[in-house]
Design brief:
The protein starts with a helix and ends in an 8-residue tail after the last helix. It is about 55% helix and about 10% strand. The strands form four sheets. The chain has a four-stranded parallel sheet, sandwiched between helices. Strands 1-3-2 form a three-stranded antiparallel sheet. The protein has three domains: about 80 residues, Gyrase A, domain 2 (2-Layer Sandwich), CATH 3.30.1360.70; about 230 residues, Rossmann fold (3-Layer(aba) Sandwich), CATH 3.40.50; about 180 residues, Isoleucyl-tRNA Synthetase, Domain 1 (Orthogonal Bundle). By secondary structure, the chain is α/β, with parallel strands linked by helices. Bound molecules: arginine.
Length: about 575
């Protein structure tokens, strides 16, 4: 496709004779009465020693319009460019139709991105707090992959720590009382609470738990087997959710995997001379870089901590994957943790890797109010949230479309779309509220609204036997403002995906899909499609087809699936 921005930038560059490529300064004005692209001349004011409006005026004289840029205007310090709309529609329709994977690119070729996401803790419920990391990570994974990056999804399971010594002791004492095959997580939780209380009362039991953990680390078969059992049971439960959400990972190397790799971390840091002692613990002091809490590497009793295993993971990942970026999709409560380990990592791995470490931090999820939160207590399990939402989706669908055939399947897609979209449309750094009325509103800024718009395009396309051929299309008939809005959005799809990766922010894609759905609704309400004069009908059908494709692809990258009817 023609790169309009580049084309305009080149014209400006030729006129100004400056070396710097000005593409990055070119903006898309908020409304099209100010042109399709705008160049703010403020950036040149310093170099050219002139006021921006003067520069704009001079540039306009030097830049000629052509068959790509049809008109150039000066507005204040801005130079506004109008592009050839017929060319835009021709480009967009041709490309979308011929390219089965529209928006796909190879800009990521040769680069490796690791995404550390989900990471629930073994023997604990998979609660609503882990939903955001799972969905944000999954979306970023898909988008990076679509842009050609070599992408590795890692589930850094919380499967290590002294609590497993206690769990083993609990199992030894009461294992026969629990049938762990049924509802294992709740039972393991129960067992843990029980043994934890006993440990507080009885020093001997605590001693035994510590011994179990020591044995587990030393590879004692009984303890290792039990630990594996806890882990397998938990994973089986987690995968129930992953399967519903269609999420998977390339690696399940969790904390335990790094337990025997922490010695080297200590060794390297020691050699670099950055280890000091504080109250018996081994630490790296980070006062100098403005972090007042030191990073603990070893506790006073000599054992390593969460941070030490994360450092071992950085070392391992650098060696194993030679990554360009390693993203950690983890809630903001761990901001300090990541600041600390990223600082310490500078002593551990090459600068190239240390620079590629990024914490994709996100806010909290507020509990849904009302019935569900009281029924379930404080910890809302993802499974319950999903089931409840699918149930509500089914009620709505049954009411709107009583004759719909596969209601269960549609309800599942709609319910999940409501959850996924609601989760991803909140800017990551904001806290999020989950409310069914909002998330399931077919006319709101929601996942179901995107599906609803998709279904609408589908029903238009179902009315025709064969898609018109782009070569027979008169592109000039798509010159009305509604068509233009849709065309411009479709044109920007790849750019939007690139922005998602630059900011590691799925909300950008969510916003885009809403804009596209709204623009199509505007087009659909104002323009008759079927039954128009043949050449108009054909062009509008093709545009509808493009919207259908981009909505499906875009939503698919978020993990949302489209129903055929709803
Ligand atoms: N298991 C941790 C938790 O639930 C998250 C782990 C995130 N990943 C990491 N490499 N630290 O809070």
């Amino acid at each position: 496709m023609i790169d309009f921005k580049k084309h305009i930038a080149q014209k400006i560059n030729n006129a100004t004779q400056i070396d710097e490529d000005v593409t990055k300064y070119i903006e898309i004005p908020p409304d099209s009465s100010m042109g399709d692209y705008a160049f703010p001349c403020f950036s040149l004011a310093k170099v050219m020693r002139k006021a921006p409006p003067v520069i704009a005026g001079e540039l306009k004289e030097k830049i000629e319009s052509d068959d790509i840029v049809t008109k150039i205007e000066v507005k204040g310090g801005y130079l506004n460019f109008y592009i050839n709309k017929e060319l835009l529609s021709k480009e967009v329709l041709n490309e979308t139709i011929k390219n089965n994977e529209y928006g796909k690119s190879n800009i990521g070729n040769g680069k490796t991105i690791l995404i550390d996401y989900s990471a629930p803790n073994i023997a604990k419920p998979f609660h609503i707090g882990h939903l955001r990391t799972t969905l944000i990570g999954n979306c970023l994974y898909k988008v990076y992959k679509y842009l050609g990056y070599n992408t590795v999804g890692i589930n850094h399971l919380g499967d290590y720590g002294t609590q497993f010594g206690k769990m083993i002791e609990g199992y030894k004492l009461w294992g026969n009382e629990y049938d762990l095959e049924v509802d294992p997580i709740n039972k393991m939780m129960d067992m843990y609470v029980r043994i934890n209380n006993l440990c507080k009362e009885d020093e001997k039991v605590l001693e035994q738990a510590r011994e179990n953990f020591r044995l587990l680390e030393a590879g004692d078969p009984y303890c290792v087997d039990l630990w594996n059992k806890f882990k397998d049971l938990s994973l089986k439960e987690f995968y129930k959710i992953y399967d519903i959400l269609d999420v998977d990972f390339d690696s399940l190397n969790g904390e335990a995997f790094y337990a025997d790799k922490t010695d080297e971390v200590v060794e390297i840091l020691d050699k670099r001379g950055v280890l000091t002692e504080s109250e018996g613990a081994t630490i790296v002091d980070l006062e100098d870089v403005g972090i007042s809490t030191p990073c603990i590497i070893k506790k006073a009793n000599g054992s390593t901590i969460y941070a030490t295993r994360d450092l071992a993971a950085i070392l391992y990942r650098a060696r194993t994957y030679d990554f360009d970026k390693c993203l950690y999709v983890v809630a903001y409560e761990q901001n300090l943790h990541f600041k600390q380990i990223f600082e310490v990592a500078k002593y551990l791995v090459d600068e190239k890797y240390a620079k590629g470490l990024i914490h994709v931090s996100y806010g909290m999820v507020a509990l849904p109010t009302g019935k569900m939160s009281t029924r379930l207590g404080n910890v809302v399990k993802i499974e319950d949230l999903i089931n409840e939402t699918i149930g509500k989706a089914k009620e709505i669908i049954s009411e709107k479309n009583p004759d719909l055939e596969n209601k269960d399947e549609v309800a599942k897609k709609v319910g999940l779309a409501a959850i996924i979209f609601n989760t991803l449309s909140t800017t990551a750094n904001k806290d999020q509220i989950f409310d069914w009325n909002t998330a399931l509103n077919f006319q709101g800024e929601t996942g179901p609204y995107i599906q609803y718009t998709y279904v609408r395009t589908k029903s238009v396309l179902d009315k025709i036997d064969e898609l018109p051929k782009p070569k027979d299309i008169d592109f000039s008939v798509l010159s009305d403002i509604h068509s233009e809005n849709v065309l411009k959005l479709i044109y920007n799809f790849e750019d939007v995906l690139v922005q998602v990766t630059e900011k590691n922010e799925p909300a950008i894609l969510a916003r885009y899909l809403i804009d596209l759905a709204k623009a199509y609704s505007g087009f659909y309400n104002e323009n008759k499609i079927i039954g128009e004069e043949k050449k108009v009908q054909d062009a509008r059908i093709l545009l509808t087809y493009c919207v259908n494709k981009v909505l499906e692809t875009g939503a698919g990258l978020m993990g949302i699936k489209m129903p055929e009817k709803m």
